[in-house]
Amino acid sequence: xxxxxxxxxxxxxxxxxxxxxxxxxxxxxxxxxxxxxxxxxxxxxxxxxxxxxxxxxxxxxxxxxxxxxxxxxxxxxxxxxxxxxxxxxxxxxxxxxxxxxxxxxxxxxxxxxxxxxxxxxxxxxxxxxxxxxxxxxxxxxxxxxxxxxxxxxxxxxxxxxxxxxxxxxxxxxxxxxxxxxxxxxxxxxxxxxxxxxxxxxxxxxxxxxxxxxxxxxxxxxxxxxxxxxxxxxxxxxxxxxxxxxxxxxxxxxxxxxxxxxxxxxxxxxxxxxxxxxxxxxxxxxxxxxxxxxxxxxxxxxxxxxxxxxxxxxxxxxxxxxxxxxxxxxxxxxxxxxxxxxxxxxxxxxxxxxxxxxxxxxxxxxxxxxxxxxxxxxxxxxxxxxxxxxxxxxxxxxxxxxxxxxxxxxxxxxxxxxxxxxxxxxxxxxxxxxxxxxxxxxxxxxxxxxxxxxxxxxxxxxxxxxxxxxxxxxxxxxxxxxxxxxxxxxxxxxxxxxxxxxxxxxxxxxxxxxxxxxxxxxxxxxxxxxxxxxxxxxxxxxxxxxxxxxxxxxxxxxxxxxxxxxxxxxxxxxxxxxxxxxxxxxxxxxxxxxxxxxxxxxxxxxxxxxxxxxxxxxxxxxxxxxxxxxxxxxxxxxxxxxxxxxxxxxxxxxxxxxxxxxxxxxxxxxxxxxxxxxxxxxxxxxxxxxxxxxxxxxxxxxxxxxxx
Length: 707
Known about the structure:
Elements: H1 11-27, E1 33-41, H2 45-52, E2 72-80, E3 86-93, E4 99-106, H3 117-128, H4 131-139, E5 147-152, E6 166-173, E7 185-193, E8 198-203, H5 230-234, H6 250-259, E9 284-286, E10 289-292, E11 295-302, E12 306-316, E13 321-337, E14 349-350, H7 352-356, E15 376-383, E16 389-410, E17 418-434, E18 437-446, E19 451-459, E20 463-465, E21 476-480, E22 483-486, E23 488-498, E24 506-514, E25 530-536, E26 544-545, E27 554-563, E28 570-576, H8 590-594, E29 602-606, H9 630-633, E30 645-655, E31 665-677
Antiparallel strand pairs: 1-2, 2-3, 3-4, 5-6, 6-7, 7-8, 9-10, 10-11, 11-12, 12-13, 13-14, 13-23, 15-16, 16-17, 17-18, 18-19, 19-31, 20-22, 21-22, 23-30, 24-25, 24-27, 26-29, 27-28, 28-31, 29-30
């Protein structure tokens, strides 16, 4: 049986493609390389739709299946170990078990693929073994064995020119096994050449250490010269790290309490709560093809975006057919800019998708902890520097959850009936660890045709030190003595490729407008009137939009070729989100130039095969967003009405840090939803059965003597 055309590469396919890539490079005289990724090249959308037989219009009631299996193709980025040159190759994997390279490109200097897990680990060892780093740590009482660091993408570093593969390292001290290293931040960080394996520069940030002028920095916010003495340029003395422990692991908290003559324990009064499905789950899977409660979709996974939902359809009983809703939905990009203006803190604005890869950072999930109940897991396959497959077990969990009431009504009249129906949702989830932070991404599908994305942010804050008596002012919060966490934003970009009843889609913008006529007028005597003003976004010139809560602004993805039988409005799905913070960095800032997708909340572009990444395919170390990025795709006033379109939604949170976010952060929740509007004839959940759960009990009745 042929694999689904959007299935991730198997381990065998990765091995096959990697061998072909290395053979091709060897033929070109390149003998030593490291592979950054090996991933599926998705077939053209039209080929997939034809092969699977998906309806392309409202009148396509018996979609044609072409029977033509799309080609399996692989892509890899490889770096020359000697020169740092980057090569991108593609190959076709044939049914006979061979791979043929059909595309080769050497990237221009300055373009880099994302950082690999191996590079992060190697760079940490480079920093920990650097003689100058060891000396500087010793100056403030930290031994070589205690040195720890988080290596990050570096944003853009103009001081070193193009061509080098750079990371920045934030340094901490770990004073004991499993101890909370972020409680002991050091007062400098490093620039690392990941290819050469050496530290290029040590940067010291200025501080506010003058008691007479507590608001003034000891230096400027500008970067220091490469050749200069950064500590001298910072205008301050060394700052020893705070040494008080702030652990989050229960056994370490208990041990510290015992050492201080106190007692501490986890809560013991919380009784078990189990999720049981004695008859099994209500969803089915064939490979990565998932069916549940009229929903039908393919669940993909890749090193960059993690979970990718494909060919999302819903079986409409009124029309007795599967109706397409979404061709592809993915986490296309995100950026995390920080507030502190003094160098090197402005380098902290990681693109966690393009500069690392959510799939590469995905956790292997634990049954009964990360996922509760009857769980089905999907495995992933990543690759290492040799191009060999690396299994990533249980990186996606799929399960059902109770979702409260779906609908209810009580006829309040004497003898009137009450009827209530409980809601259930299907959850498709992954958890990604990006250095200090954890992100939980959960797609939720509901019985009324709603798709919801729930994102939870947890983990540990990015921490920096304070001098004795220093205030972090307005740019952060002192979460513990001499431990500061800078304010920051998390801005996600979701890529939705709608296919609402077919290929030809549009986006409407709806504003809620109070009537212009004054109270007392013939048209608006009571003064209460308001109406919905709808506008179809016609071209890319008007396709970049900002949310406006004062207007109750809503956007809907619609098919203008099909109208609801009663409302006479186009069938569609509306976008619902409360989390639309503006990008706070200036438009011409380093962040503003690179994360152009974050400048607007909604973008609509014409569909083009391969346009998947709003900040560009190669994000690492770019000075600005490349031509192959979202803002440039908006050029030339191209039509975005009644055509094949892509919607990009930028949403997130501005995180003003609380002391309660330390030493580990209770989750911060962000949500996004698309909800049917006129897509169904009426409530599609009328056929969900009501009734009572026979295992539910009156919790306190027995103990209170009522039974």
